[in-house]
Structure formats: structure tokens, C-alpha cells
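Quick check before the chapter quiz. The format below is the same one you will see on the exam, so make sure you can read both the input and the output lines.
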Amino acid sequence: MAGIRVETMDRFDPVSSKDVRDAVMRTAAYADVFDYPLSAAEIHRYLTGVRATIETVEQTLQAGLLIPSPQGYYTLPNRAELVGVRRRREQIARRMWPQAIHYGRAIARLPFVRMIAVTGSLAMNNVEDYPDIDYFIITAPGRLWMARAMVLAVARVAALRGIRLCPNYLVTEDALVFPDRTLYAAHELTQMIPLFGLDMY
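Here is the expected output.
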């Protein structure tokens, strides 16, 4: 089978057309679990298993593996309704972002906090019914538990206003090697939207 030049960190390695097709399907199928159709650029960004150029991904999509929509998204067969779901959830997310930024700024001002980012469904603008606002937080070494206590205090204040904050990842700046190597964890890190502490990001 003819090889396709696939991008790696420092060179192009030959990978079969089938490998790229399989990777495109895996990527779309994973997003489908979350009712989330992807654009060609997003399939390229989150491509699972191989590294390919955007041109290679677009060429592969032309083979008709996925169903294109007029809005530029691709879905699995019989899942075209997800385009409307994505658009509706994006509207909900737009209303949530000011809250996420407001409380993210409050957390960023706490002692020992070095970086804060939004993760989870809001980072993908794929929210339903105002879920938790998930944060990834990096703290100074040796200060994680103290910082966590202060972050939870901010979360309690937000809860009094009906806003649910979830600081679900807290790590110190000297422990940034992530032990969880699952696809879910990889997506969480890749999708995160940094709010404050961009030099650390």
C-alpha cells in the first residue's frame, strides 16, 4: 500500500493510507461519544495514533468516510443532527465564559497559584444545562494543599450564587509530568484554555 508522509516532531515518517483513515475514524468516533462533530482542522489537531499534515487529513476526508455538513463539520453516518447540538451548546457556553473568567481571575490572585486554565466541556464549548466550570490549577511547590483550601473557599462563594466550580486538577509546578496516559487525560490537557499564568503554560 502506498505510504503517506506523516509529520513527526522532527521528520516525516511513511505511514499507510489505512493508518490515517483509521486514525480519522477513531478521532471522530471518540468525539461522537460526547455528541461533538469536528471540523477538518479539529480532526487534524486531535488525530489519534498518527501525526499527519492537515492536507493529508483533508485528502482522507474526501474519501467519504465521514458525513460533511454545510457548516464545515464532519459526523459519523446517521449523526448529522449533532451539528445542531454543537451550535446550541456553543450558545450556552458563550453565556458561561464570563463567569469562568471572573472566578478564574479570583483564583489566579490567590497566593501560590501559578496558572489556571479551563478544562472539561466548557473548554470545548460543548456544555449542556450549565454544568460545573472545571479548572486546571498549577501551584507553587510545597503549597498545593494550602492553595487548594483557598480555591475551595472561592468555590463555596460561587456556589452561594448558583455557580459550580470544580478545581479537578491541582498540581505543583515541579510535578508537571502527568501520570495518567489515557486518551481522556490527553484530551483534557490538549483542550485546556489557559486564563492566567501564560508564561507557565
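If your answer matched, good. The two ends are 41 Å apart (CA to CA).
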